[in-house]
Write a structure and sequence with these properties.
By secondary structure, the chain is α/β, with parallel strands linked by helices. The longest helix has 24 residues. Helix 8 links the parallel strand 8 and strand 9. The protein has 2 domains: 192 residues, Rossmann fold (3-Layer(aba) Sandwich); 41 residues, no CATH class.
Length: 258
């Protein structure tokens, strides 16, 4: 565990990625705190799939480590750091906590912009949240399937709405690269990557029984929901992640931070 920066940022390093020691309540508070600052802060997450990508893609790993906060989105990451005697408070999954976070954001008067997913999905997600939280200010939405030539106009559209938090749902590593490349042009306090959150919030993607989710089996629920698309990620990817962790921990001289 290391302390970095003026606020004594605490992180653990897993396979070269620095992950913040923060629980879900702490993550919400950090987003609120960041939103009050003048500079733009970037927030990203990691799960087992992200960790596998980071092992093959050095640029992605560097981008993650350049973020102002990285939180553990998957139970595999939480268990992974335990192999080195380190601890994380637990996983923080946006599909679970977003409604509660939005109640906090509404109470603080914070404005959000949703960017990502297919045409209309972010708007559906925004509508469902605002039905339950009427005071929530989601000042704009835009799909994630725009071309590089359209990027400038998308950034301008976001800035016109003057959001405090831009919520980006492209999936890894595209969303992290986009955040890194565009954060300075965005007139927002926080740019936050959330993966497939809008599909979950809109109801387009089902999550499975809560008791399975609570016990770290969301991957199994998603696999049953979309087996053709996700079998490689979860059956092959999760196995590979475990093997990489075991190799680094027990069969090589490479440290957790390598």
């Amino acid at each position: 565990m290391a302390a970095n920066g003026e606020e004594q940022r605490q992180t653990v390093s897993l396979l070269g990625v620095n992950i913040d020691v923060v629980d879900t309540a702490g993550l919400c508070q950090k987003l609120v705190d960041f939103s009050a600052e003048e500079s733009t802060r970037t927030v990203m997450y990691v799960n087992a799939d992200c960790m596998l990508i980071s092992q093959k893609n050095v640029k992605y790993r560097q981008t993650l480590n350049g973020a102002d906060l990285i939180y553990a989105d998957g139970v595999g990451v939480v268990h992974g750091v335990k192999l080195w005697g380190q601890t994380l408070p637990g996983r923080s999954t946006a599909a679970d906590f977003m409604p509660d976070f939005c109640r906090t954001f509404a109470g603080k008067g914070l404005k959000l912009f949703f960017l990502g997913a297919a045409e209309g999905v972010a708007r559906e997600a925004a509508n469902k949240l605002q039905q339950d939280i009427p005071d929530l200010q989601i000042v704009g939405t835009h799909h994630g399937y725009f071309t590089p030539e359209e990027n400038e106009s998308v950034v301008a559209e976001i800035n016109e709405t003057k959001p405090d938090i831009v919520v980006v749902g492209f999936g890894a590593p595209r969303q992290e690269f986009w955040i890194e490349q565009n954060a300075e042009q965005l007139e927002a306090a926080v740019v936050w990557g959330v993966g497939g959150l809008f599909d979950f919030l809109s109801g387009r993607t089902k999550r499975g029984p809560q008791w399975l989710l609570d016990h770290g089996f969301e991957w199994l629920c998603r696999l049953f929901t979309e087996p053709r698309r996700l079998w490689r990620r979860y059956l092959v990817g999760n196995t590979k992640f475990v093997l990489i962790l075991l190799r680094h921990r027990y069969f090589s001289k490479v440290s957790i931070s390598s």
